[in-house]
Amino acid sequence: MPFSPPLPLPESLQSMVQHHRDQWQAAVAHADLASRVPELGEQFLSSLDSVLAGSDFVAEQLRRDPHMAWRLVDDDLLWRTLEKGDMSRMLSAVLAAVEDEEQLAQALRRFRQQQQVRIIWRDVTRMAATAETTRDLSDMADSCIELAYQWLYTQACATLGTPSGADGQAQHMVVLGMGKLGAQELNLSSDIDLIFAYPEAGETQGGRRSLSNQEFFIRLGQRLIKALDAITVDGFVFRVDMRLRPYGDSGALVFSFDALEQYYQSQGRDWERYAMIKARVVAGDQAAGAELLAMLKPFVYRRYLDFAAIEALRSLKLMIQREVQRKGLQDNVKLGSGGIREVEFIGQAFQLIHGGRDRSLQQRPILSVLDMLATNSYLPDEAVDELKGAYLFLRDTEHALQALDDRQTQMLPTDAQSQQRIAYIMGFDHWDAFRQALHSQRARIARHFADVIADPDDEHDEELPLHSEWMPVWEGSLDAQQRIEQLSEGGFKKPEEALRLLQGLQESGRVRSMQRLGRERLDVFMPRLLGMATEQDDADLALERVMPLVEAVARRSAYLLLLTENPSALRELLVLCSASPWIAEQITRYPVVLDELLNAGRLYRPPETDELVDELRQQLMRIAEDDLEQQMEVLRYFRRAHVLRVAASEIAGTLPLMKVSDYLTWIAEAILQQVLQLAWREMTQRHGFPKRADGSLCEMDFVILGYGKVGGIELGHGSDLDLVFIHDGDADAETDGAKPIEGSRFFTRLGQRIIHMLNTQTTSGALYDVDMRLRPSGESGLLVSSLQSFARYQREEAWTWEHQALVRARVLAGCKRLSHRFQDLRMEVLSRQRDEAKLREDVGGMRQKMRDNLGTKATRAGSDPSAFTAEALFDLKQDAGGIVDIEFMVQYAVLAWSCRYPELLRYTDNIRILDGLRDAGLISGEDVQRLQEAYKAYRAAAHRLALQKQPGKVSGDQFQDFRRGVISLWQQWLPE
């Protein structure tokens, strides 16, 4: 890749570059290398001036060590990208001849100087992208730390003995790289932030005298720091900063794993969580280091929505801003407004808030984190693109500043020549053009940073009122009558009741036992709640429905902080709770779904079925295979979140009835598919794979059938799932695993695992209530049937009502091959020739039993519509002329006529079956329209009542025309 300088060398830099070149040529001549200069090649010589323009450090290294140029060229280090492991292999070769610590220090430093020249050369000439520069610098640090550690460990064991654990096995130290090193994002002059740890207490063995493991590793750590950090005639390797360890400079240099875990659990501060996000094992025992990071992960990533993290980041940013102002660091591209640190804060804010639940955010590099913020819709794609572009521009600027003389700085230069050099390296004609571009990039970062991190109390526009006028009402600084008067003037029609609710909250045990920080958050939140409640059509209702949530989360005040930080989310909460007590109850029981209110665009746009399946699959992929508890939590959150989105869309009128049922059904299907996958994997890992009749191994020859509402794609809020399990394995053959069991037991246990995952009550509730009574022989039958026994039962033993249920049966999850075989069986059973008189008798008899047992008094008294008055309730589902009548007529039609019209078996939902009956000429278009409109109207009313937590009954004078029409058709088809 030949170098082509972006711009001609400016005249103002030519004399400076010529001076550097003259010094290098003099050094070359002194070393008797002048005649060999042509060996360096045109690519080296043509790029040399540009590199010298950008780096006094390179100029100095080439002058001090003239042979370096030939080593770099001969080893092809300037023109190629290093492969993984190259850095470590090169350093290993250098250290092979080292015999003492002095030689170790010299070898490390000279290796670093040469690699630093190589990296700066490729960066300045743009032969390496920003990511390659930071990766090479990080790889160099990793290699230096690891190989120096291994050399020093061997020497220490020889003189001090080998540190051992309780099992007598030798122990190694674990070196954690923090900050930019941990994220593999080192800059040209970064410090390296390290933490030293060791697995467990013990003593050394084999030395002149025994030392505790901690003492051994302290001595080893001190030697390692000296090997890297001490300044000698050859310079240094890396400046080492150990202040991120527990207790900082006053703490021990090395801690055991238990001591670290105890410290972070009991004393870990918010900024330490922020720092630990990037922690990575850079040297020592990698396996033990992985265990350590797993132990510390609960400290970093909370399993609940952790909006309190943003407050800690804001405090940290405020502290940095004060330091910036005090030291005049506004021109610092890292710490100043719109600097590198703000991009990192944006990413880490989302990581700390959501990372406990969204494992895709549990990664170190900021660019990867930003990508996930776009992928998972935490930030718009455009915002992420702007942040990434600005971040890379600033990192390139940072490298240009540090390349000048290998100095740790992020400050823009003030002298004209340095300014011209930076502009040139960055590809600009002059400083003003570069400064304008830099200002534009920093402004973008500052804007996005304000959107994520800024304190809402800093906003004074009309969109984010503070509602401070309600503070006296909440705090009680006014007397009771004055508080009632203000509540009344604010729009509360029952001010006395509103005051009672406020006083009840203040006097509740949960509020009285709150910690100081939580109480402060509640005191900030409540005036906002009161102020926004007055914006609702019914302030009293809004307050009444949200107050149970406030009390429920009082001791988990991060939720209060979330709503305080996001007024739009609080507004959405009030709107939804005012509209539906069911939603209010769901959010109160499962406040984790408050996260969904942060994105109104997503809240009112439930995803399509493929998006649902993919989203849940990706979420579960981020969970360890053996972590069933977390898998179940992900499933439950997924359902709660998406059901909330469906309900919100239904209330907002953006989702019609049919789509509501579609989405609720798709959510269930997506969950069942993953539950089956999880249960199958667990069972096969334990027992191996079951076998088919031909002896081959089953490839999940199992299906979950859905009956009733889920089968008919008509789920409502709170519907249970009518399920049947079928397998196609050999019931007698044993599985092929280490713990084999008979196929029948395997599939029964598989069914039990599925039900367990769906039914089990966790802190997030159960997934679904499951009803298995529609399986062959009902509750007395096998939990899981083979396809053969299911077929035999349907052909020979099933009652008419069971064939009615089969009309709405379909496969929800499982084996496609078995699914096709079930569909063939369903068509065979349903399309058989039937005696229509006997069929009418069976269907009518079953319907009458249901009316007698489940209908209202009016229906039990008869089905004459004239008797249905306003005083007599109408059960939308069970009464004459209601939902079940329509369903029974459709089922009767399918059983009676599908033998001649098999197209009636294509669908399982009533609306499309009715379309098929019309298209076949079996029912008039007018009658079909009447039934469909009645069916939709009843179901819409039932959905509305469910969201209002009311039973599915309305006054008897409603839906009179629909009921008359349905009863009339019933009497034509199935006369009593």
Automatic annotation (TrEMBL):
Top-rank EC class of the record's enzyme: transferase
Pfam family, one: GlnE
Glutamate-ammonia ligase adenylyltransferase repeated domain segment(s): 47-293, 572-823
Cofactor(s) listed: Mg(2+)
EC number per UniProt: 2.7.7.89, 2.7.7.42
A cellular component annotation (GO) from this entry: cytosol
Domain annotation PII-uridylyltransferase/Glutamine-synthetase adenylyltransferase: ranges: 315-452, 866-949
Catalyzed reactions per annotation: [glutamine synthetase]-O(4)-(5'-adenylyl)-L-tyrosine + phosphate = [glutamine synthetase]-L-tyrosine + ADP; [glutamine synthetase]-L-tyrosine + ATP = [glutamine synthetase]-O(4)-(5'-adenylyl)-L-tyrosine + diphosphate
Keywords assigned by UniProt, alphabetized: ATP-binding, Ligase, Magnesium, Multifunctional enzyme, Nucleotide-binding, Nucleotidyltransferase, Transferase
Region feature (Adenylyl transferase): 465-976
GO MF assignments: [glutamate-ammonia-ligase] adenylyltransferase activity; [glutamine synthetase]-adenylyl-L-tyrosine phosphorylase activity; ATP binding; ligase activity; magnesium ion binding
Region of interest called Adenylyl removase, as start-end residue ranges on this chain: 1-457
CDD domains referenced in this protein's UniProt entry, alphabetically: NT_GlnE_GlnD_like (cd05401)
Gene Ontology biological process terms from the UniProt entry: regulation of glutamine family amino acid metabolic process
Gene3D superfamilies in the record: 1.20.120.1510, Beta Polymerase, domain 2, Glutamine synthase adenylyltransferase GlnE, Nucleotidyltransferases domain 2
Function comment: Involved in the regulation of glutamine synthetase GlnA, a key enzyme in the process to assimilate ammonia. When cellular nitrogen levels are high, the C-terminal adenylyl transferase (AT) inactivates GlnA by covalent transfer of an adenylyl group from ATP to specific tyrosine residue of GlnA, thus reducing its activity. Conversely, when nitrogen levels are low, the N-terminal adenylyl removase (AR) activates GlnA by removing the adenylyl group by phosphorolysis, increasing its activity.
Protein family (similarity comment): Belongs to the GlnE family.
Official protein name in the record: Bifunctional glutamine synthetase adenylyltransferase/adenylyl-removing enzyme
Provenance organism: Halopseudomonas laoshanensis
Organismal lineage: Bacteria, Pseudomonadati, Pseudomonadota, Gammaproteobacteria, Pseudomonadales
